[in-house]
Amino acid sequence: MGINRPSLYATFGSKHDLFLEVIDRYSLTLGCQPVKALQGEPDIKKAVAAFFEASIRAATLKDRPRGCLIVSVAVEVAEKDEQVRTKLSGIFAEIDRGIADHFLVAQDKGQLSQETDPQALARMVISVTHSIAARARVGASRGELSRLSKDFMAVLFPSRVYPTE
Questions:
Q1: Using CA atoms in the order 95, 101, 106, 112, what is the torsion angle rounded to 10 degrees?
Q2: Are 47 and 41 in contact (CB under 8 A)?
């Protein structure tokens, strides 16, 4: 960052405060791309596919650490740090809500059955994304991650065939 230790503390207060700022910054930039991709697509099947594709792209960017900061690093810290845990719980709740709201709209449009539980479905989609991030972190290729997302899509939307890349 090009600043010395006294400037770091003057700017952020502490390394811990800087870490909390990094989580915020990540969630507002790279971390929000999958949700934006989902919300930008009115067809629910295409929306979920776009969500997974954006997740895979973010988790496998060249010249960047693989995976997801929140899934790979912050969750580990959250176990021991109440502030990080609270921040991540809020981020997860916001993401769950945004995805569930999109599923509710899809229900209203007749794209999903009224028996579908949008909140449960949102949690499942997020869980697959966490798996994508963890697998990317340990070296899974984009192709492997795409197959994982397509396999889930086939279970979630069994009547739809998704072409391979």
A1: 80
A2: yes
- pLDDT of 158 over the 90 cut: no
Q: Is the dihedral of CA 155, 157, 52, 71 positive or negative?
A: negative
What sign results for the dihedral spanned by CA atoms 15, 21, 27, 28? negative
Spatial separation of the C-alpha atoms in residues 15 and 82, rounded to whole Å: 15
CA angle at 87 for the pair 61 and 14, rounded to the nearest 5°: 85
* Token code pair at residue 106: 């899809």
Amino acid residing at 142:
R
- pLDDT tens-digit map of 85-140: 999 899 989 999 999 999 999 999 999 999 999 999 999 999 999 999 999 999 99
- Which residue reads 């006294």 in tokens? 6
The distance in angstroms from the start CA to the end CA of the chain is: 38
C-alpha span between 24 and 70 (Å, rounded): 10
CB 15 within 8 A of CB 9: no
Which domains does the chain show, CATH number per domain? 5-156 (1.10.357.10)
Tokens for 149, please give them: 């997302």
Amino acid at 137: R
**Rg of the chain (C-alpha set):** 18
